[in-house]
Every structure is written in C-alpha cells, then in structure tokens.
Amino acid sequence: MAQVPANLKYIASHEWIRDEGNGVVTVGITDFAQEALGDIVFIELPEVGSEVNKDDSIAVVESVKAASDIYSPVSGEIVAINEELVDAPEQANEEPYDGAWFFKIKLSEESEMEALLSAEDYAAECE
Amino acid sequence: MGQRTALYDAHTASEAKIVDFGGWDMPIHYGSQLKEHNLVREDAGMFDVSHMTVVDVTGTDATAYLQYLLANDVAKLAEEGKALYSGMLNEQGGVIDDLIVYRADALGGFRAVVNCATREKDLAWMDKQAAKFDVSLTEQPELAMIAVQGPNAIEKAKQAVSANAKAVIESLSIFQGLPSEGWFIGRTGYTGEDGLEIMIPATEVAAVWDKLLEVGVKPAGLGARDTLRLEAGMNLYGNDMDETISPWQANMGWTLALKDERDFIGKAALIEEKANGIEYKMVGLVLETRGVMRSHQKIIFTASDKQGEITSGTFSPTLQQSIAMARVPADAGNECAVDMRGKAVPVRMVSMPFVRNGQKVYK
C-alpha cells in the first residue's frame, strides 16, 4: 500500500503539498506516483523566480516507462528548487516525501489552499 | 486474472510487481528495473520466459517444410544443436513473427521458439503451410523456460543443475542448444550477454528457480528484459516490426537467405522490394541531451520533408542516456531531430547494437 502521510495536502494528479506556514508551500510527488512511474531517470524543474498558475504543467518526470507532467497545485512564484534531485532523480523513488521535494512556491492566492485534498480524500482517490 | 506460469508463486515470493502481458500475469520488476538491468550486465539475472511458445517440427519433410516456411535457411544448421534466427513471412514479405529454430536431431527434427503474443496466428499459419508436407507440429505447453543471462550466468547455472545438464552446458557454443534429460538448454538469449535459455518441464521448474536463487542468480522482470534487448539492438515483435513491415525495413536483411534456388514464403515480394529500392530502414538513435525517447515519436530531417518514427525508445541504464530504434526514410540523410512533446530535439543516428557484453559498441 502506498504511503499517504496525514500531515500533507494533495491534488488528484499525485502531487503532495506541505504548508510551511509562511505563505510558502513545498511540493513533491506521492509514493503512489513514484510506484506507478517505476524507476525515475530524469527530472526537469521550473526556474526559480518564475510565476506559475494553479494547474500549469511546470515540471516533468521521466521514468524508464513514461514521461509525466507535474502540475502546480497553487499559483505563485517559484522561490526554490531541489537541485540535488536533478542530479539524483532516483531519490524520488526512494524517499518521495522526505529528501525528494521538487520546488517551493510563494503563494499569491492563499485561498487556493482550501481546494487541496486531505490525506484521507487523496487516499480514496488512489483506490 | 490472466494465465500464470509455473513460477508465479516464486515471483510473488520475490515481491514481483505483476502486470498483464499478452494475457499472462508476468513480473514487470521485483523492486527496481534499473537494478535488475545492471545485474544482468554485470553478473547474472534470470527471467521467467515460460510464456514463450515451443513447437517441435518433426517428420520426413521437416527440413523442406522449414525451408519453405522461413526466410532464413535451416539448411545452414550443419550439425545437431545449431540454432538459427529467422522471420516467418507472409506472401507480401511482412513479418508474421520472428523466431529461433534449433536443429534437434534427438527430438526427431527441429525445435522452434516463437513469441507468446503471436501464438495463435503463428500456429494457425504453420499448420496451414504444413498441409503440403509430411510433417508434424507439436506444441510443448508443458515446458516452462528460464533465461539465465549475464557474464556470470553460465558459471552460476552450472552450479544449479544436474551433472548431465552441466556437461551439456559446457559443450555448447554460442547460439547452440541441446536436450538434456527432458530439458532443452540453449546458449541463447535476448539481452546481448552470454547466457542460457533453459526449457524445463513445468513440474520441475520451481525447484530449479529456487536452486538458481541459492547460487546467487537474482530474478529480473520483463522491464529489464526490454531495456536489455533494446541496448542489444534486438527487435521486439509488434513494436519494431509486424505483418506490414518487411525484414529489409526491420534490420533483418542479414536473416534473408536469398542466394540460392530455394523458394520460401515472401521471397518474391522481398526480391521485388529490393529491386524497386527499399524505402525505409531501421536505425539506432542516441539522445545526447536529457530526456527519454518513446515509441511513436516522429523523426524529422534537415535534408528531407519525409519523416521517420521511433519504434522502441527507452532510457539506457548502461549508457545513462536515451536510446531508440527508429524506422526512417532510406534517403533522408543522417541529420535529424526527434519531436519530443512538441520540441525538435537533435539526435544522433548510429548503427546498432548499442551495447554488447556490458560495453558500449555503437559508432
């Protein structure tokens, strides 16, 4: 069974969102997503400073099996990306919730947080 | 639930991820396709290939029948045990299937191994063509098959089998196969490494699998099998060729025995195609930047408006970059790009294979 930590928020396209509490969220892909993708070999991240809209495709994960778009769960500015992940994409398979965060977004619309899925709702989506 | 091989329980015991593969429940990986791939390149891995179809061809006309059925010539099998790779073609020269045929005197003729996904149509076609010959076709569904592949595969396999089987293994040259006490052992494979494909009665196979595990051969899934064969430049039926594609356009020209009087199904069409100029060819592609090429992506050329198409593409674990096979216009030159998600990404055209015996070999 894929892990779905209770302290995170989710969107149905299998990204997780951690609220850092200062108007910034951290985003990665879920255990369910990495399992479905198989061995991840390349990750493309957005540029720091770029403005993104909710539901934009802003990153790409390539596994041995398939290419998959990563969507922005909220609107705002990219304030950090995980460069280490680009050099070691297998991290996204090994520790999807810990080391393998993708990017951080400074929110422009705080209210968008309300539309995110709880762990319980996301787990139901995966069934 | 699909069909299961006699090794299904062994796969789940090794925590395989099971997927549907042509109606069979087969292991795609046992945790990591990449690790399994590397294990086969560096040491030894084993694959359950029991879903493959084994057909024995016996009778007075066995040789004549296969000479008519296949584009390669079984007369090349000068002694018992020799094996031949061939296409089985339709009248239009399209590939119905690719197969390996062993000369198996001890079994009264030849043993052919054909693909699982094409089983029904292959058997129907072989049956139909057999009408004019004194020949018997006997499928061997009770045989399971383990492919043990990698630089240490043969040494390890020898530790896991009977004295008789060990002696047979030691007697085999590359691309030969011989029977041994109800088994049939081929020094063949689909990975570009040395190794064996061992046909074993289904009732015995689980014990052999366990013994191989004990001597340090690890299981590898169909995912690794695909990246290994692609690095080795070996075709996958249904991806790289099918009934609408001739061997000329699928890098199988070398398998066509056209030089003598022998007639075979598809020969006339092949000769005509060659005379008219073969329009497409199969090439290898290497992506020297990041990203992964995938099947059905289009290839665009600097010097031509004609396009090509990727038939198989993947990330090469050995080369750490993406490789692909593509069918491209024969006259479009070498300078090309692959259309990846709307972006034209320059790509290098190379000759295959990409990898042999663990080493990069393409130029």
Q: Mind explaining what this structure looks like?
A:
The complex is a heterodimer of chains A (127) and B (363). Chain A has 4 helices and 9 strands. Chain A is of the alpha+beta class and 127 residues long. Chain A has a single domain, classed as Beta Barrel (OB fold (Dihydrolipoamide Acetyltransferase, E2P)), CATH 2.40.50.100. Chain A has a 6-stranded antiparallel β-sheet. Chain A has a 3-stranded antiparallel β-sheet with strand order 4-6-7. In chain A, a hairpin with a 3-residue loop joins strand 1 and strand 2 (15-19). The longest helix of chain A has 7 residues, at 31-37. Chain A is globular, with a radius of gyration of 13 Å. The termini of chain A are close together. The model of chain B has no long low-confidence stretch (mean pLDDT 97). The radius of gyration of chain B is 20 Å and the shape is globular. Chain B has helices at residues 8-13, 33-42, 62-69, 119-130, 153-159, 163-171, 202-214, 222-231, 267-276, and strands at 17-21, 24-29, 45-48, 53-58, 83-89, 95-104, 109-114, 136-139, 143-149, 177-180, 183-186, 195-201, 218-219, 280-287, 298-301, 308-316, 321-329, 336-340, 343-350, 355-356, 359-360. Chain B has a domain at 279-360: Elongation Factor Tu (Ef-tu), domain 3 (Beta Barrel). Chain B has 363 residues and is α+β, with helices and mostly antiparallel strands. In chain B, strands 10-11-12-9-3-13 form a 6-stranded mixed β-sheet, with helices on both faces. Chain B has a 6-stranded antiparallel beta barrel with strand order 14-17-16-15-18-19. The longest helix of chain B is centred in the middle third of the chain and has 13 residues, at 202-214.
